[in-house]
Predict the 3D structure of the following.
Amino acid sequence: MKPILFAFTIISLCILSAGSQAQDPPVPPPAAESSSSDTSAMQTGTAIPPDPGYALLKVLARPSKDSIVLRWAPTTPHGWRIGNRFGYSIERRDPSGQTVLLTQQPVMPWEVEPWTDLLNADSMNTFIGIAVYALYGDTVLAGDTTGQDTVGANIETNTNLFGYALFAADNDPDVATALGLRFVDRSVKAGVRYSYTISLAGPQTYRIDAGTVDVVARTPAAGPPPKNVVAVGGDGSIQVRWEPNDEGEYSAYNVYRSENRGRTYDRLNPTPIAIVVPTNRDIPGLGILIDSTIINYKRYRYQVRGIDAFGELGKAAEVEAMGRDMTPPPQPLVMNAEQVGKSSLRMRWEMVDPPGDLAGFAISRSAFPDSSFKRITRRLLPKTAREYTDEKANENEPYYIVAAFDTAGNMAPSFPLYGMLIDTIPPATPKGLRGTVDSLGRVTLRWNRNRERNILGYRVLRANAPDHEFTQLTGAIWKDTVYVDSIAINTLTRNVYYRIAAVNTRFGHSEMSPFIALSRRAIQLPTAPVFTDVNAAESSTILRWATNSGDKLRSLILFRKTAGADRWDTLATLSRSVDSYTDRAVVLNTTYEYQIAAVDSNGTAVWAELPVQARPFDAGVRPPVGNVKAVLDPETKGIQLEWTYAPQEAGTYFVVYRSVNDAAFLQLRSVAGSARLYVDRELVGEGSYRYRIQALTHGGAESPMSDPVSVQIAGQR
């Protein structure tokens, strides 16, 4: 059964040493200390929870065809101490309802003498010693008659002893029987369901509730294999790891090894391996066994089996692994590198006490002393080699490492070695120098990059004549292959001259390149155009401008953008003779900015000095209402008005005006903009009725009044 532990926590660590011998049964350490054996390591210091004042009896049953094994335990250490003093009663109820008391005498722990006989019969059983220590190891608790001090001053000691007892009972059926925590009912019938009740056989001064379990007598199935079992080979050892099952079926585990591909197995751990983690710590449970009795490169097969509360083994989980040599050879001791040619470096090293499995050496090179090393020897150098010459050494990768390899592939690198080349050869003369001069006197130079890997940059020089001394323009080394200079155009010297030189990382300079001559030809820029008039109307903007008729213009380009925008959009490209433009693609009440550029025959563009703004506005005049008709409606006794009007912007509506007997026109009614019909039912008698209709908007715009229409209403005769 799954042990109920408080301060007693076990994290498995099983290390099987080569040639381990049988040991005397261990005595568990006190709770305040920790110790380790071949199979487990105990961690103490977990806080002891207070006693709840009562306990429950947890009961498990394992059936077979002819018997049923019962296991139980109280849920508190104090309840265990009370149960040891009074014992337990067991009742069985069959399907007919008949109840039988199976224990004529309470089931209690053994006295000392039977324990001695059990130990003599199995002296290597460590769980016997653990159980005896749990019952009788503490003289204060062993001699206690009331048991009340196990909830006070002795609660920590009793809690640990309780854990020892359950651990021993879970791993050995005979020990569980001797502790008074196991019973076998052999008077059962196969296939029949039974209900068992286990209760305290004594006064309830400390409440211990009875436990029950229902079970059918039948052959049980083996428990599941442990989860996530892996085996990792090391140097002279193999580590086997696994995780406890989620349902807590097992109290401990055994690990077995086979050296003949699974035909036979030997158990590696002398005592079962328990995996229990503290309840107040969020760490996963993990079982570990390190087998250090292996031979490298020999394959082994391992099985891990769980042990349930009845001491039965579950199904095996199998893995295979082998150890390998992981010990690197000694580190080579490198000496200073020696330059033996223009691009050749020779390095030497020593190897103290070369191992028998030394395979050879490899050389690596890098631009950095601590990373990015690349191997430059395709094959290992012989194990007798103590020097190597790099025929392709370069300044960009001056760091070297000599690595020793053994036959298993283990590597031991040397400390980085710096190999410095002395370079006395200057760079090649730069080629491909060329340049252009624009209308503003801006010179752009370009040239081809040198092919040497150690080129640092270039120097750019200028002169006003080819036989003058060239002056350096770049104070520092110019690292690009493009250089921009600025010169005066309107001077007496027709040309300007340039040449360049390459510089390497040793500050060696190449020969000067051949010079190039660039013309300082004066370029007359066109005169900037000027806006002379801007007229914003309701649906367009009219622009006018002036240009210099003496300029050799090719075209004019007109640009537009909305106020506040960053980008100019091309509005129109016009011939040089055009001096006005009407922009009809405008939106009312939107402010526009306009700019114009004059482009000469060389493609040089000159913009107007200042842009202009225009904002098309709404004049507030709308078209008049048309086709107004008025007729007398006999049915409604009213005058019906009809009219037509083209759809306008949102917010348009109509106002109907009326005049009676040539009086002044007065506002009669407002009508929605979607209406084209209105009936005047508010007549005031006979006479002449005249009507006019006007269109208006909520923005304040209005149309002229429509032409008047009239209807004559005669009196009754």
